[in-house]
Structures are given as structure tokens and as C-alpha cells.
Amino acid sequence: MINNYNLSTNIIRFFIYAFLIALLIVTIVPIWLLIVNATRSTTEIQQGISMIPSTHLMENYGILLSKGLKIGRGFQNSFFLAISTTLISVYFSLLTAYGMVVYEFKGKRLFNNFIVVLVMIPMQLSIIGFYQYMAKLGLTDNYAALIVPAIASAGGVFFGKQYLESMVIQELIDAARIDGASEIGIFHRIMIPLAIPGAATMGIFAFVASWNNFFTPFIIITSLDKYTLPMLVKTLQGDVYRTEYGAIYLGLAMTIVPILLIYAMFSRYIVSGIAMGAMKE
Fold first, then answer.
1. CATH number given to 71-278
2. Which pLDDT score is estimated for 21?
3. Where are the domains of the chain?
4. How much helix, strand and coil, in percent to the nearest 5, is found in the chain?
């Protein structure tokens, strides 16, 4: 009986590992091909697929520069937007989630349900009204139209609430109040240090979402000097780049390198933050 159980367990484990390895291959191979093609010439790319990098990386980079693509400016704009949006989104999301978890008020359940509904509504449905509102405020072609709305991040509030519910200690908060700490002081001195793993997870997701965001900046920003890196990559589809496939692949690869580095450095925060946020007392 025990042998049959062990055999069935090993078979199930084998298929699970095989499935996970297949998912890993499906995920990694396209990214690897993108990086490899960034080092190949147009002629080599037209000859077929290769998994081995070539030697035309600097040549492709020179083509990008020769066509007037301001890569450095694009990186600067993308980093500025991503970092600003991340800081604002994480702070105010945690602050709102803290209020929802710690305090009792009328309409709390309704407000919770409203947050869930906002999470499920895609940005594309409200983009017309959003643009008109920004136009009335005079914020078109302005980074403020992309940074300030991050204060009301429904996804960040939802995740922050789930996380704080698993680690808020009411007795600790009451003790701080008895010692004379203000409510905002309790949040800054007690809650934020305790919520660092969750805040790091929220920050990574917010940074990646802002870095990859093409749709909203494309609607709001019109000046070429303010283009983010994804917007600059879009210009690679012009006639001057159409036959330079190596340069196109290099431009695309440059947009994903920062994201890969961030995931490599902070993946442990993602795992620990999500795991903690999924636990309930």
C-alpha cells in the first residue's frame, strides 16, 4: 500500500516538474531569442533562427544612434516616471490600506467592494474621460498627468489591504497610542517597517507596470523629448528602420533589460510578500 502511494506520488511529482520546466522554456526562449537577435545583423536574422549570439551588437547600436534615436533620454524619462509613480503609488496605497484595516467606519464593506470593482475595470474604458479631464486641467503633454493619478492605485490598495490584514497587530497599535504616538506616526514608525516585504513587492509591480506602460503616455505625451523608452521603440517601425531588424531587436531588448535586472535582484521580496499577503490568521 505504501509502495503504491509512493509510486503515484512520484509520478504526479514528475508530471508537475515536467509541466513547470515546459513553462520555463516557453517563457525563457522568446526572451533569449530577442537578446540573441539584438546581436545579429539583418542578413543573419533573415537566414533563420539561432540560439547563439553574434558579433553585431555595437553595429546595431550605432544604427540606432545614427537614426537620431535618443536612447539615453528615453531611459531617463522612463526611470523618472517609473520611480515617481512607484513611490507615490506604494506610499498612498499602504496608507489607504492601513486605514481600511485598522479603523471601523460606516460603508467600509461598500468601499472594499468598490476597490475590487476598480481593480477589474481596464484603463482603456476610461481613457477618453481621463484625457478630457487632464486637458481641462492643462496637464496634457505633462508628466504630472501620469504621476499624480498613481495616488489612487486600486490594485495597490487591494494588495496592501490583503497584506496588512495578515500582519497588523492591534495590541501594538494600542500600545503606541497609549504612549502618545499620533496616528500618522504609528503608520510611519510601526507599520511601514513591518510592511517592508509587502511594500517591496508592490513597488516592483508598480515599477514594472509604469516602465512597460505605453498606452497612457502615448495618449498624454506629444513632445518627442518627453517620450519614454517604450514610446521610442514604437518609432522603430518607421521606414528608416524597417530593414534594420538587428537594430529593432536591440531597441526592444533594451526595454526589457532593466525589468529583468529588477526581478533578478528583488525576486525574493516578490515571493515572500505574496506569500505573506496570502496568509490569514
1. 1.10.3720.10
2. 92
3. 2-60, 71-278
4. 80, 0, 20
